[in-house]
Write a structure and sequence with these properties.
This protein is α/β, with parallel strands linked by helices. The chain has six helices and five strands. It has a five-stranded parallel β-sheet, sandwiched between helices. β1, α1 and β2 form a beta-alpha-beta unit. The chain starts with a strand and ends in a 6-residue tail after the last helix.
Length: 164
C-alpha cells in the first residue's frame, strides 16, 4: 500500500522527515505532497520546498515528492494511495486533524487517515517556530535538514529588515 503525506512543509523540519522515514518503513511507497495554497503566504516557493524535500529524502528510494492543489482525497486517489499520513504533536493538533480526517472520510470512505505520534525529540518543532528562530539569527541546525538550514540562512540574510 502507498501513503500520501500532505502538508505545507514551509519549510521541511526534522519532525516531518522523521515521519517520512517511519512512513517509508510502514508502506511500500510514500508520496510527500506539497499543497499549493495561495491563501497562505509562504517563505519558500513550492519549487523550493519540493527541492528541499527531495534533497532530504534522497536516501529513501520509496519516497516520491510532488506538488498538488485541490482536494487531498482527489490527489490521494490520483497517486493510488490508500492512506493519508499525518503527524500528531500535541493535543492542540488533535481537534483540527480529527476534523480534516472525518471530512476526508466523508468524501472518500475507502481512504484511511493514519496518525503517527511525533518523535519526542521533535514534538516542539513546527515550520513557524523554525522560521521565527531563523528570522532572528538563532541556530536551527538541530531543527531542520542541513539543506533547509542553509536556505533559511540565505533567505533571512538577504531579506531587508523592512520586508521581514
Ligand atoms: P499543514 O499541513 O497543517 O500546513 P505542516 O506542513 O506543518 O502543516 O505539517 C504537515 C503534517 O506534518 C501535519 O500532519 C503535521 O501535524 C505534521 N507535523 C508537523 N510538524 C511535525 C513534527 N515536528 N513532527 C511530526 N509531524 C509533524
Amino acid at each position: 500500500m502507498r501513503a500520501l503525506y500532505p502538508g505545507s512543509f514551509d519549510p521541511l523540519t526534522l519532525g516531518h522527515l522523521d515521519l517520512i522515514e517511519r512512513g517509508a518503513q510502514l508502506f511500500d511507497g510514500v508520496v510527500v505532497a506539497v499543497l499549493r495554497n495561495p491563501s497562505k503566504n509562504p517563505c519558500f516557493s513550492v519549487e523550493e520546498r519540493l527541492e528541499q524535500i527531495r534533497r532530504a529524502t534522497g536516501h529513501l528510494p520509496s519516497v516520491e515528492v510532488a506538488a498538488f492543489d485541490g482536494l487531498t482525497v482527489a490527489f490521494a486517489q490520483q497517486c493510488g494511495a490508500g492512506v493519508i499520513l499525518r503527524g500528531l504533536r500535541a493535543l492542540s493538533d488533535f481537534e483540527y486533524e480529527l476534523q480534516i480526517a472525518h471530512t476526508n472520510k466523508s468524501l472518500a470512505p475507502r481512504l484511511e487517515t493514519l496518525f503517527l505520534a511525533t518523535a519526542t525529540a521533535h514534538s516542539f518543532l513546527s515550520s513557524s517556530v523554525v522560521k521565527e528562530v531563523a528570522r532572528f539569527g538563532g541556530a536551527v541546525d538541530h531543527m531542520v535538514p542541513a539543506g533547509v538550514a542553509e536556505d533559511l540562512t540565505r533567505l533571512f540574510n538577504q531579506a531587508s529588515p523592512a520586508s521581514l
